[in-house]
């Protein structure tokens, strides 16, 4: 519809924008000219910028515009309106300034709509940013169990992309056992219409991860359930910390028990050992009771070792810190085992790093740790095999490493987490040596790691913080 706008004020620009956009679908306006006595009116300037003809002669424009179909009067002047009505050609329609307010309402409505759309888009961007940035697993599914939203941390855990989940069910993208559990829990949420939580174990790349899973129903304005939202937090590290606290509680309890029992047992053991030694000296080698007395002495000594370990375990003495070379720890431990029968057929080798930093530690306590690890290795190899003692520097974590590696049978994977527990043993021993060692290293702000050697044996790594303080002379 060929249109002339008379009046180049603010409203003129709004109508030009409406005509050039897609907002007025039922009214197609083709603005062919804008008229105003002021050539520099805002509407006139805007029309020229948009390539629309402008004029200051209303009469000439209205009378000579070919096939003019619509005149929009925006002057607000009734006299001008009457003049326009007097010169209009038959069939030409007129929208005066009173009726033109409809256009202003349309403009305002469009601006409000655009602002609302921008707000929705901004909210969607913020929501997406929150979902994508979260470390927790977040997903939303519809009532058919199809994923509507999944954040990247979920997809990455199963080596998928986010788009691999959208529109699919758990059965289609996740391992069967996990999918079965998810479907069961989602069903409970939708049936009860309640917020529910579970402790779930998810297998990721062969490793069990512990999750706190919270699920809640999504509803529409009428309260009908439209889907479920799931938020899962990996609490594996918290579980490990809980296990360590339980372990610490066990150690404390055993320490209290040991402190009370060990002293009571030690005195009678000393008496039994003294009398047994005297009896042995009084018996000849061919006496039928000679071997029995030797067994008594052997078992009494074994009990004494248990009591000694209990006392060491119970004391939990704070280390007397000094500047210690890790290589000296190995040398001291080797000097102690030189004459022990357990090592008669064991080949002991050293791989020493002479440039390794020092550590702040108690030399006597640390040598006890290495001695216990070596005794443990000798028992595992049944007194025959090789032990490699190595010192290294872990530059990345700024710590010194002492390794005790044997070529024995190794440690079964299901026992690795238990071998530092008090009284746990696979060889019928008292099971306190490794527990004592763990406590010593822990008091030195270090830790002990276990690994499997290439030859199938066990590797114990004692990790201790490095220091660069100069040794006192």
Task: Please describe what this structure looks like.
The structure is a single chain. With 473 residues, the chain is α/β, with parallel strands linked by helices. The chain folds into four domains: 106 residues, 3-Layer(aba) Sandwich (Rossmann fold); 101 residues, Beta-Lactamase, CATH 3.30.450.20; 77 residues, Orthogonal Bundle (Helix Hairpins); 146 residues, 2-Layer Sandwich (Heat Shock Protein 90), CATH 3.30.565.10. Helices cover 44% and strands 24% of the residues. It has 13 helices and 17 strands. Helix 1 packs parallel to helix 2, helix 9 runs antiparallel to helix 10 and helix 12 packs antiparallel against helix 13.
């Amino acid at each position: 519809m060929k249109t002339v706008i008379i009046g180049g004020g603010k409203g003129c620009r709004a109508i030009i924008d409406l005509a050039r956009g897609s907002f007025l679908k039922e009214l197609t306006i083709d603005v062919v000219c804008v008229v105003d006595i002021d050539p520099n009116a805002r509407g006139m300037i805007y029309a020229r910028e948009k390539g629309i003809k402008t004029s200051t002669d209303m009469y000439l424009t209205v009378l000579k515009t070919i096939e003019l179909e619509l005149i929009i009067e925006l002057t607000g002047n009734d006299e001008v309106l009457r003049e326009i009505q007097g010169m209009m050609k038959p069939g030409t329609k007129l929208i005066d300034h009173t009726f033109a307010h409809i256009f202003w309402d349309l403009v305002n409505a469009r601006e409000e709509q655009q602002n609302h759309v921008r707000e929705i888009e901004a909210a969607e961007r913020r929501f997406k940013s929150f979902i994508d940035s979260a470390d927790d697993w977040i997903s939303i599914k519809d009532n058919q169990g199809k994923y509507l939203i999944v954040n990247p941390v979920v997809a990455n855990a199963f080596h998928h992309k986010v788009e691999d989940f959208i529109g699919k069910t758990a059965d289609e993208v996740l391992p069967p056992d996990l999918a079965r559990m998810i479907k069961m829990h989602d069903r409970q949420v939708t049936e009860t219409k309640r917020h529910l939580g579970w402790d779930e174990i998810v297998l990721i790349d062969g490793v069990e991860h512990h999750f706190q899973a919270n699920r809640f129903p999504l509803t529409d304005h009428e309260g009908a359930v439209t889907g479920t939202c799931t938020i899962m937090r990996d609490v594996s590290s918290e579980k490990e910390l809980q296990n360590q606290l339980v372990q610490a509680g066990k150690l404390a309890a055993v320490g209290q028990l040991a402190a009370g029992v060990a002293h009571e047992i030690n005195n009678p053991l000393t008496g039994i050992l003294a009398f047994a030694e005297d009896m042995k000296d009084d018996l000849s080698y061919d006496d039928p009771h000679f071997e029995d007395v030797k067994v008594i002495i052997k078992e009494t000594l074994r009990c004494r070792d248990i009591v000694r370990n209990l006392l060491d375990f119970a004391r939990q003495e704070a280390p007397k810190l000094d500047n210690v070379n890790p290589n000296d720890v190995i040398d001291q431990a080797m000097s102690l085992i030189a004459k022990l029968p357990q090592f008669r057929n064991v080949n002991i080798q050293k791989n020493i790093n002479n440039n390794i930093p020092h550590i702040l530690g108690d030399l006597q306590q640390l040598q006890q740790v290495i001695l216990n690890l070596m005794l443990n290795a000798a028992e595992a190899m049944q007194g025959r095999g090789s032990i490699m003692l190595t010192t290294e520097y872990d530059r990345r974590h700024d710590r010194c490493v002492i390794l005790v590696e044997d070529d024995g049978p190794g440690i079964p994977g299901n026992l690795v987490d238990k071998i530092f527990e008090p009284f746990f043993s696979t060889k019928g021993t008292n099971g306190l040596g490794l527990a004592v060692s763990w406590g010593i290293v822990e008091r030195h702000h270090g830790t002990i790691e276990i690994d499997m050697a290439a030859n199938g044996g066990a590797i114990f790594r004692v990790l201790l913080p490095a220091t660069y303080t100069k040794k006192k002379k």
